[in-house]
Amino acid sequence: MMGIGLIGRATRAAVMAGIVAGSVLALAGAGTGAAHAQDLKFFRIGTGGTAGTYYPIGGLIANAISNPPGSRPCDKGGSCGVPGLVATAVASNGSVANITAIHGGTLESGFSQSDVAYWAYHGTGVFEGKPKVDDLRAIANLYPETIHLVARKGSGIKSPADLKGKRVSLDEPGSGTLVDARIVLAAYGLSEKDVQPEYLKPNAAGDRLRDGALDAFFFVGGYPAGAISELATSAGVELVPITGPQAEKILKDYGFFSTDTVPADTYKDVGETKTISVNAQWVTSSKVDGDLIYGITKALWNANTRKLLDNGHAKGKVIREETALNGIGIPLHPGAERFYKEAGLIK
Q1: What's the pLDDT score for residue 52?
Q2: Most buried of the four, 31, 84, 159, 309, by CB within 10 Å?
Q3: pLDDT at 4
Q4: Which CATH architecture has domain 145-279?
Q5: What parts of the chain have a pLDDT lower than 50?
């Protein structure tokens, strides 16, 4: 369930041994050497389910920022990661779970929808009545996350309003998708009581939809999403538009949403679909060392990482330094802020 940076085979085995054993000494015994083991720094990136977009993007970024002892040499004139760092992409339930784990100290960082991060920091929205996560800090805005409402082919679902009485997966508790699915349902005059709700990740939801045991499911993430692509190819699906006055009300009530379009044939035999989106952001804790976050931010925005992102995933291409500060509604980590000031993105 983890993605590990681009490191040598012996080091990879050592890192895995160290993660399982929870001990740097295990790393030394697995072949990295005691001196090198002492220099290693671990940095976890909470992502989402393995069938979504967070997980592969997390793996790409983990590759980009990792540079443990004995790793690949640096290219001339460019960063190839943070010296001594082993970053891992950890599968999780998504935005809410990642923020909770960061606050609790079981993750150093994670991905979150921009709305969920804002609500967590301010103690509003889905975090209403809970303590504010006031140590939450931003590293970077990444890419737009599209709200997919995926329906079984021939289901007759043409609008979210048609979900009434249907078997619908809203994603797992702790996910940003569940938060946004509830917002969409409410905008169309529905609640969870008006549907037959299930709480599944997209791969499990796709299996049930293929078997005829589910009518539709929500997924919030960058397109193309692997689980939906596979389902469209093997069984056929329809994407339900989220448009009209209901969608306009969502945009008015929640400043984090934007209009979005899934281009035709992003998924096999699915036409252009109008919908809405939020931003995916990389967040961390104010307790994480400033020099480390500075190094990680610098490693994220360089030519070597650019190649990894461009070639690794369709959404990697839209992760750009010039949009790194877009839509951030929580404070930047001081280490990240230092980099952006040096880069001229903050005056």
Answers
A1: 86
A2: 309
A3: 41
A4: 3-Layer(aba) Sandwich (3.40)
A5: 1-38, 77
Domain locations along the chain: 2-142+281-342, 145-279
Q: Which two tokens stand for residue 264?
A: 């035709």
Alpha-carbon gap, residue 278 to 285, rounded angstroms: 22
**Given this structure, which CATH class describes domain 2-142+281-342?**
alpha beta
Give Cβ neighbours of residue 279 (< 8 Å, ≥ 6 apart): 113, 114, 141, 142, 143, 144, 145, 256, 326, 327
Put residue 184 in one of left, alpha, beta given phi > 0 → left and psi -120 to 50 → alpha: alpha
Partners of 4 in beta bridges: 88
* Burial (CB count within 10 angstroms: exposed 0-12, middle 13-18, buried 19+), residue 247: buried
Rounded Cα distance between 206 and 134, Å, is 36
Q: What is the pLDDT at residue 76?
A: 54
**322-332 pLDDT per residue, tens:** 999 988 989 99
Q: What residues form DSSP beta bridges with 136?
A: 285
Strand duo 273-285 + 258-262: pairing: antiparallel
Count of CB atoms situated within 10 Å of the CB of 16: 16
At 266, phi and psi to the nearest 5?
-60, -40
Measured between alpha carbons, how far is 65 from 309 in angstroms, rounded to an integer?
A: 12
Beta strand extents in the chain (DSSP E only): 2-4, 41-46, 66-67, 82-83, 85-90, 109-113, 136-152, 167-169, 196-198, 216-221, 237-239, 258-262, 273-285
| Tokens standing for residue 213 | 């045991």
Give per-residue pLDDT as tens, 193-202.
Answer: 999 999 999 9
